[in-house]
Amino acid sequence: MTSVAEDVPLGRTARRWEVLPYGLILPTVAYLSLFFAWPMVQAFQLAFREGGAWTIEPFRMMVNDANFEDAFKFTMLLVVVIVPLQFVLALAMALLINSKLHGRGVFLAIFIMPLAISDLAAGLVWQSILTERGYLNTFLEAIGVIDQPYIWLDPTKPNQLLMAVVVAELWRSTAFVMVIFLAGLQGIPHEYGEAAEVFGAGFFRRVRTVILPLLKPSLQVALLFRIIFAFEAFAVVIAITGRAKTTLATEAWRWQADYFNSHVAAAYSALILVLSLVSAGIVVWLLRTPREQMLQ
Amino acid sequence: MNPPRSALAGVARVFVYGSAVLLSLFILIPIYLMTLAAFSSNEDTYDYPKELLPRGLSTETMSFFINFGGVLDALQRSVIVALVTLVVALVIGTPAGYALARFAFRGGDTLRLSVVGTRAFPIVILSIPLAVIFIRWGIDDTVLGVSIAHTALALPFVVLTTASVFAGVSPELEEAAMTLGCSRATAFVKVALPLALPGLAASAIFVFIVSWNEVFAASLLTLRHRTLPAEVLALLEGAPPNFRFAGGFFLMAPSVIVILLIRRYLFSMWGRVLK
Amino acid sequence: MRKEGTVRSIRHTRKAFIGFAATLALVAVAMLGGAGSASASHRAAGNVVFLSNQLAQVSEIDAVHKYLLNGFPGSVDYVVPPVGQGQVWFDRITAEAKASKGTVSLLGGLHGDYLTIQQNLMSLNDVAKQLAKAGIPPDLMKLGRLGTNKQLYIPWMQATYIMVANKQALKYLPKGANIQALTYAQLLQWAKNMKNQTGQARFGMPVGTNGLINRFLQGYLVPSFSGGVVTTFRSQGAISGWNYMKQLWQYTHPQSLSYNFMQDPLLSGEVWVAWDHVARLGTALKTHGSDFVAFPAPKGPKGRGYMPVLAGLAIPKTAPNPSGAKQLIKWMNSVPVQARTLGSVGFFPVVGSRLSKRLGVGLLSMNAAVKNTQRAKDALKSLLPIGLGAEGGNFNKVYVDTFTRIVVRGEDPKSVVNNEAPILQAIMDKTGAKCWAPDPASKGPCHVK
After folding, report:
1. Residues of chain B with C-beta less than 8 angstroms from the C-beta of C287
2. Average model confidence (pLDDT) for chain A?
């Protein structure tokens, strides 16, 4: 396995080059340590200390809480349902834009618009679409599909509610993943695809064998961020379901903002962090890019 | 020899176009509805059946909103904060992304995970310690303070997105430039950077969006010099729907413009530049 | 070909960077310009930064500037926390206290909010003495001491919770029911009639994440059925109250779990009969007053429980301009400004009680409902929690969790209250809070029987 650094002749140049990567990342590391490390350490301490003594009481309270199980299950459900769906959708959209489609500039403009919309606004829009006296029912009644408003956001129908959240989230955040894929696709020379085509590979085969492997770095980045956001799912869930469904992030917020218990809030945050990092770690490991792949 | 294939290609084409159009409708309709509601009057806003066509539009809601004290100032502040964050985050983060992509150094994966990890901790919990630091340093309630906070939030995006894009740029090109006499830095600027422009563009979009829409830290760190989301959302509690949509629209419009401006850089220089 | 592409790309990149550099220069100039703008006014009271989590709706903020702050000899920066981020109010004060450096001089909040930050508040004994003569009732003033011997907040405005009905709903009232004096049984029948006869549940409750369901449970449901709030938490009366709620829920609009401000579903027609805080029903009554009628909450076996709400003004210890803030307090409590509060922001004054006829049908109806509540012979006043400090949130959680488990998830009432009662007791023990009305006074921490 060769890396660029190892190609350098030994001597003073080599030493300078070994320092270079660290020098390049130093500003970032310093900046983030300054602004996140200290508050995070303090916040973490809150999860394990109460009244000056080390304790797991906050965690015990968190786990025994009436809402913990629901929050945990729903959060995991969201991650497991939304992420794969979104990746397929985002890939399809990115491939669409990347192809020789007519008017793809317009499509790109449309596809990335949801990025401009904050999650609060997105939740607001979908709530007003799906509410009983909202846009969807207006439309359905107008075309005669239903004759009285249907309650889409019915807590007694949990799968329906889940679908509502999934649709709203797909609408809101697929653009993020798509943009990462698109930027990554730009680095794949189209000669590769053409060569594969000459050898008889159909579209899906080409995607699987040529594009996806070369897209690994982008897949990894997109997956990392998407998973982390999924664990922090919040505004859209609240806007659409209100108190009917809760997530880990919602509970963390409630313990901090409503119950003024920073300790349990920190415990929830620690749990979110651990789940995110574990998932992220798995993703990084599964989608490890061997250096060979980069040195085409 | 080819007819069956082109027939299939024809069907495929229709399918592809059809999907693109359906997806576009899916994305556009809620935005259209939001705009419609933002330009409806107080009377119509609670009507049912809801008005689906642009009849009876009124700018009364939007103009009340715009003239409401502080909104335009907040808009200006948000723009400044977003731009400052954009520049600083790109300048600090791009070298780190490059380093992650090019060098196999110890701690590369750990760094990647830690950078991502900073985003995994809900900012809601970090709020008080962060605010205390800012107040003590005297940058509380300033545009600078918010920019600093937003840069910290945006850095992970820049680092990882640029890393993934630099990973796709063949290092042989820079090596070729160097054998022709360029220094490493020149090779980076003249060869790697332009080819990674899509990644920079993507990062730029993300940074702008993150900063523009960020409301929690901005509200906490400012009192009298609010940024737009903080200002807008403060006004929306219990407001009628047309107001909330006016706020949403007002927040959305500038960032849509910025995104549309940056989007053409998402395409690389491999001959597929979008005009 | 490739070479040309690269040249074009370099020019492209260069253009992009130049563009950014120009913008940066512009930004620098703008920032310098912005930083230079002065903020302090040299009028009598100086500049007061007034952070309030009350009167935070758009129309209310507008009214605050136009009718309440207008004329004050000083400049006021009226700041409110963003939607659903009420925590920012609390975080801001806590952070300023920790940093020992503040920007906020005056706070506007509820009794319950001040409980959580009372250690950060300045003593206002001098202001209290001056305002006692102005006519603020002594029992309200006492609440402002938060259980200590210092005046920590000055009462500012009052409110309570009422019910509102769309006039279309009136024909579904059970026979013989007087809307201004309903019983809970009649309310249940009313909700049942509406659902059975129209096919859709038209009764709604604010059970959303920012909804005030906790106050309904603490001030209305539990007291009306059990006669107390803490001591009777697991009494038979309370259990029958929870069973009642379970029944009522079947005829309640399913989207109630996301309703925060009942004026919205009332105005859109999703809900015809609702209970909520007067400020969250205000828009409906002000803009469509002739379509609605306001009335007091119903009466249960033990009386007509209701909860008075008190908003107050306080000064944090880190206030940069305490004298200006004190002047603003006196201004807000002056008779002319107080007279304008009901008409402009829907809150009731603490000082004086002259009401203008120009209030409009809706607000007059609201006022009548409030008066009927307070003067009802069977009225059972249920006070805001006293002495709970930062545990106020956990106190709310006990009631809301009990509701969620019994009413939404369908668990057995008896086992749920027995499960939650120790949590409630722990809160009482931890804070040492004595019982408050409607519970009988206690010597030590309030005890759940």
Report:
1. 42
2. 83
**Distances A42 to B39, C193, C244, C374 between C-alpha atoms, Å:** 46, 56, 46, 48
At C82-140, the pLDDT tens digits run 655 667 788 889 889 988 988 999 999 988 788 878 899 999 999 998 887 777 888 78
Among B3-12, C198-207, C344-353, which range has the highest average pLDDT? C198-207
Best probe of the C interface among A62, A258, A262, by most C CBs < 10 A, is A258
List CB contacts (< 8 A) between C84 and chain A: 238
Is the domain of A9 the same as that of A115?
no
Facing residue for A36 by CB, picked from B50, B118, B159: B118
Q: Which helix (H) or strand (E) holds C79?
A: strand C75-79
Could B46 and C267 be called an inter-chain contact, meaning their C-beta atoms sit closer than 8 Å? Answer: yes
Q: What tokens does C125 get?
A: 């004994």
Whether the ω angle into residue B49 lies within 30 degrees of 0, i.e. cis, is yes
Is A277 within 8 Å of C291 (Cβ atoms)?
no
| Three-point CA angle B237, B240, B243, nearest 5° | 85
Residues A41 and A113 in one domain: no
Same domain, C289 and C388: yes
Q: Which residues of A271-286 are buried (b: 16+ CB within 10 A; e: fewer)?
A: bbbebbbebbeebbee
Q: Which long-range contacts (CB under 8 A, 24 or more apart) does C2-11 make?
A: C5/B269, C5/B270, C5/B271, C6/B191, C6/B194, C6/B269, C8/B269, C8/B273, C9/B194, C9/B195, C9/B197, C9/B269, C10/B190, C10/B194
- Please tell me which chains touch C, using 3 or more CB pairs under 8 Å as the contact test: A, B
pLDDT tens track for C310-350: 899 999 999 999 999 999 999 999 888 887 887 777 788 88
Task: Please name the residue of chain C whose CA is at the shortest distance from the CA of residue B221.
Answer: C92
Q: What is the C-alpha to C-alpha distance for residues B79 and B84, in angstroms, rounded to an integer?
A: 9
Residues of chain A where predicted confidence (pLDDT) is lower than 70: 1-18, 289-296
CA B216 from chain centre, in angstroms, equals 16
The answer, for B87 touching chain C at a CB cutoff of 8 Å, is yes
Asked if residue A175 and residue A51 are part of one domain, the reply reads no
The sign of the dihedral angle between the CA atoms of C361, C364, C366, C368 is negative
This complex has an ipTM of 0.83
Contact B40, B58 (CB under 8 A): yes
Reported as a pLDDT band with limits 50, 70 and 90, residue C391 is: confident
What is the pLDDT averaged over residues C245-268?
Answer: 95
Q: What is the pTM of this model?
A: 0.83
* Residue contacts between A and B (CB atoms, under 8 Å): 297
**Matching residue, tokens 């620098």:** C28
Do C124 and C1 lie in one domain? The reply is no
Per-residue pLDDT at B3 exceeds 80: no
* Average of per-residue pLDDT values in chain B: 81
Contact A257 C87 (CB under 8 A): yes
Structure tokens at C68: 């309440």
Put simply, the answer to whether C264 touches B240 (Cβ < 8 Å) is: yes
* Residue at C365 is within a domain: no
The CATH number given to whatever domain includes residue C154 is 3.40.190.10
The band of C253, judged by pLDDT with boundaries at 50, 70 and 90, is: very high
pLDDT, tens digit, 9 for 90 and up, residues C364-383: 888 888 888 888 888 898 98
Are B223 and B145 in contact, with CB atoms under 8 Å apart?
no
Side-chain half-sphere of C26: how many Cα atoms within 13 Å?
13
Enumerate residues 53 to 112 of chain A having a beta carbon within 8 A of any beta carbon in chain C: 66-67
The residues near C277 (Cβ < 8 Å, ≥ 6 apart) are: C159, C160, C161, C212, C215, C309
Domain of C201? 161-307+372-431
What percentage of chain C has pLDDT greater than the value 90? 53
SS3 A155: coil
Looking at per-residue pLDDT, the higher value among A174 and C4 belongs to A174
Contact C103 B223 (CB under 8 A): yes
